[in-house]
Design brief:
Elements: E1 8-14, H1 22-33, E2 37-43, H2 49-58, E3 63-66, E4 80-81, H3 83-88, E5 93-97, E6 100-104, H4 107-117, E7 126-130, H5 134-145, E8 150-155, H6 158-172, E9 177-181, E10 193-197, E11 221-226, H7 235-242, E12 246-248, H8 251-266, H9 272-288
Parallel strand pairs: 1-2, 1-3, 4-6, 7-8, 7-10, 8-9, 10-11, 11-12
Antiparallel strand pairs: 3-5, 5-6
């Protein structure tokens, strides 16, 4: 594309941002849809989030994505916040408004689109959720609002899991999230579960990392979904498959959360055919080893 005086700019703020795939998603979409937009990453040092948002507004940036560790911190710098993002307590997308930005969370809907696209259901399911951090918190909320029967949230620290469970259960008006210590996984009732891996354990370069190494645990999983997409197949996924379950990585979640942000910025609707073109480009990136 030709960058000129009418080119609109979007970007990503976080720390670090060097390995992000978001520019590939958004710049590919702009090319497919013929829109005069460019997307770039911006490294923001700790303690400078407010200055970054103010500067982006002064520069009339069309929108921003927000990644770790600023998804909660950025909220204080917004003009408005969407109700879903407020309930989750995290923002990953800023949309330009008069005098500033409105915050949204597209992670949750991105995960839902990714899961339903693979034939994974949440309604009525019994779910094991590994982790209670920012990503897992959004997953817990998603599971609760989409009608999960029960979610066993396993975390290293009880207080954090309990706090998330109380918050989500209060928001949806039912006791669906059950907090547990990670070491208590053996107490989960017998049955077959959808398991969602919501921690950073197993993220490259720690490719052999896994939250639970006990083989018996994986006998309970009919489907495993790891929010990590690098490596392409985590040890959690390998162990799930070895015990007869289906397993998926988080690349489609990344894709769809980006697509939803792109739609918000540009007031367009991205078709599944267009989304698939971007997904194929992302897969090529992994297959090339870049």
């Amino acid at each position: 594309m030709e960058i000129n005086g009418k080119t609109r700019t979007c970007g990503l703020i976080g720390n670090p941002v060097e390995h992000t795939l978001s520019p590939m998603i958004h710049n590919t979409l702009a090319g497919i849809l013929g829109q005069n937009m460019v997307y770039v990453p911006f490294l923001v040092e700790h303690g400078q989030v407010a200055e970054a948002v103010t500067g982006a507004a002064a520069l009339h940036l069309l929108g921003l994505n927000v990644t770790v560790p600023y998804k909660s911190e950025v909220i204080a710098s917004l003009q408005e916040i969407d109700d879903l993002a407020k309930n989750i307590g995290a923002v990953n997308t800023l949309v330009q408004t008069k005098g500033g930005y409105k915050g949204y969370n597209t992670d949750m809907e991105g995960l839902y689109r990714a899961m339903t696209g693979e034939g994974i259901r949440i309604e009525g399911e019994q779910i094991i959720l590994l982790g209670a951090g920012g990503a897992a918190r959004a997953v817990a909320y998603l599971c609760a609002v989409k009608g999960a029967k029960r979610v066993y949230m396993l975390n290293r620290t009880w207080d954090k899991a309990k706090a998330v469970a109380l918050e989500v259960n209060r928001a949806v008006g039912r006791d669906v999230i059950m907090p547990m210590l990670l070491t208590e996984y053996g107490k989960i009732p017998e049955g077959k579960y959808l398991a969602i891996q919501g921690t950073s354990v197993g993220l490259a370069p720690d490719e052999e990392g896994v939250v639970i190494a006990d083989e018996a645990f994986y006998d309970k999983i009919h489907t495993g979904f790891d929010l990590i997409y690098s490596p392409w197949e985590t040890r959690f996924m390998k162990m799930t498959k070895a015990h007869g379950g289906r397993a998926y990585n988080g690349l489609k979640m990344l894709l769809y959360q980006g697509i939803i942000a792109y739609e918000l910025w540009n007031d367009v609707c991205v078709s599944e055919m267009e989304a698939q073109k971007v997904y194929e480009k992302l897969k090529e990136h992994f297959n090339s080893g870049d």
